[in-house]
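Subject: design request, 306 residues
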């Protein structure tokens, strides 16, 4: 018995070999626009961050999933999470764009969708282009454009604020109405094993100058984008870690106006066969399992070494 040696595989990393993994990389959403209280325009909603995914259930016919990635032994793959864009705080500001999330490694092409477009504010510029486009501000400006195969265009409105685009659909547009436009829908993914929405567009604020008026504010895309403001309610930010756009401010909340709200940060999700999972991570991702796969969900920057 003496002189013999035994090598045991690690509990987390059963095999050391190349493996095909699925992923979702979602960037930060754009900030909402400012609604001017001096009888000017309502602010638009921010666009969602762009999304790139290999998981086949994530996309309909409008955007196809990309190929899965091959992770190789000994390689460290780096994850960076994009932040949400700040909201506009004056009528001569634009909502800021969100920043890009990324997944990179020495043996793969970096996956890095574009951050969401910030929205226009009252009488200031157009909604910004981004992964998904930012909304217009009332009838004075145009909505921003989304990036092909990552997201959709923002929406426009005549009096109320336009809406941010989502990762599944463009922001809605309204005609001659005081209502804010609704944010674009988000993609629904089950990459973690449970269906969830990622990347909702921000809703536009209302155009209303009197307390007796209370038109409908723009809803956030798929319930996770920020809601637009109205006389009786301030706008809301994008839901945390969903890469969603912030809501736009109403113009009917007093002469000081109504700031928009910020977009939310993105997320990176890796789905790795458990038999090939190394267990070597940094950045404290959430680790769960689904069937025969291990899922790493990063809401902050970190790494995985295969």
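Subject: RE: design request

Done. Sequence follows.
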């Amino acid at each position: 018995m003496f002189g013999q040696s035994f090598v045991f595989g690690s509990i987390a990393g059963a095999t050391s070999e190349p493996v095909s993994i699925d992923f979702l990389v979602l960037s930060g959403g754009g900030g909402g626009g400012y609604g001017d209280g001096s009888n000017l325009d309502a602010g638009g909603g921010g666009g969602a961050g762009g999304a790139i995914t290999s998981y086949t259930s994530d996309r309909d016919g409008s955007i196809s999933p990309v190929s899965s990635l091959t992770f190789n032994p000994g390689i460290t793959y780096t994850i960076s999470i994009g932040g949400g864009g700040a909201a506009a705080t004056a009528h001569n500001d634009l909502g800021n764009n969100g920043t890009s999330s990324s997944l990179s490694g020495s043996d793969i092409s970096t996956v890095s969708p574009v951050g969401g477009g910030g929205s226009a504010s009252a009488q200031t510029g157009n909604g910004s282009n981004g992964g998904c486009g930012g909304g217009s501000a009332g009838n004075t400006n145009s909505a921003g454009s989304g990036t092909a195969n990552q997201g959709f265009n923002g929406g426009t409105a005549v009096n109320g604020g336009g809406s941010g685009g989502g990762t599944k659909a463009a922001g809605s547009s309204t005609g001659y109405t005081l209502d804010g436009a609704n944010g674009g829908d988000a993609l629904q993914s089950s990459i973690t094993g449970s269906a969830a929405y990622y990347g909702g567009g921000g809703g536009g604020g209302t155009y209303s100058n009197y307390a007796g008026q209370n038109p409908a504010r723009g809803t956030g895309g798929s319930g996770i984008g920020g809601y637009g403001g109205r006389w009786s309610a301030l706008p809301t930010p994008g839901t945390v870690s969903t890469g969603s756009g912030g809501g736009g401010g109403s113009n009917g909340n007093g002469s000081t106006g109504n700031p928009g709200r910020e977009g939310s940060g993105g997320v990176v999700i890796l789905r790795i066969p458990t038999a090939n999972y190394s267990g070597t991570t940094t950045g404290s991702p959430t680790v769960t399992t689904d069937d025969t796969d291990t899922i790493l969900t990063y809401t902050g920057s970190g790494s995985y070494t295969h």
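The mean pLDDT is 89.
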